[in-house]
Amino acid sequence: MAAIADPPFTYGVEMAARLRLRAFRMDDAEHLYALFSDPQITRFWSFAAWTTPAQATAFIQLRLSLPPQSVSSWAIAHLHNDQLIGTVSLFLLSGEPRRGEIGYALIPAYQRQGLAQEALRLALSEAFETHGLQRVEADVDPRNQASWRLLEGLGFTLERIEPQRWRVGDEFADSAIYVLSRRSLTNTL
């Protein structure tokens, strides 16, 4: 298989055992649409499932245009074929303490295999080592047990519940704010 060239990427290509984080490419649109058009994926998100492939193209164009000092957004790509299997984003929030917010999604066929954990370890390494953040937050619907268990397994702790913070479909949903701080880091990364 020939080497795959990536567009310029601020922090390089990060690799784990079975996947890599890389910049989005326009040829990711089909798989990105498959991810976010799935109502099971967007069940706990603050936006409805996508209804047109153009939404995937617009997402990629937006993410590629954002300044790296505001967001680092990656395609989670399988090492075997470099196909997008999910996304992870690190939103860099201004002010002190230096903090960020992380978000992630994985195509259902790749869930429950430890791949999300691999991807988040890479993104968290970027957050603390490259960006020098003091804390990373994750906003999770408390009903999304798989997501908050993943975070807890990486050392995140529940900081607070914010009632009715998001509109999800036809209902208002709470937010569980999980935090991983530089001070509380252990050997989980």
Structural commentary:
The protein has helices at 29-36, 39-42, 53-65, 115-130, 145-153, and strands at residues 14-15, 19-22, 71-78, 84-93, 99-106, 135-140, 157-168, 171-181. The protein is an alpha+beta fold and 189 residues long. The chain has one domain (14-181): Gcn5-related N-acetyltransferase (GNAT) (Aminopeptidase). Strands 1-2-3-4-5-6-8-7 form an 8-stranded mixed β-sheet, with helices on both faces. β7 (157-168) and β8 form a beta hairpin. α1 (29-36) packs across α3. It is globular and about 40 Å long.
Tag the structure with descriptive keywords:
189 residues, Aminopeptidase, eight-stranded mixed sheet, disordered N terminus
Low-confidence parts lasting 5 or more residues at pLDDT below 50?
Answer: 1-13
CATH topology: Aminopeptidase
Please give the oligomerization state of what you see: single chain
What is the terminal-to-terminal distance? 31 Å
The main sheet comes to:
8 strands, mixed
Helix content: 25-40%
Strand-and-helix sequence, N→C?
A: EEHHHEEEHEHEE
C-alpha Rg (nearest Å): 16 Å
The CATH architecture classification is: 3-Layer(aba) Sandwich
Number of strands: 8
SS-derived structural category:
alpha+beta
User: What strand line-up does the widest sheet have?
Assistant: 1-2-3-4-5-6-8-7
Q: Report the β-strand fraction as a percent range.
A: 25-35%
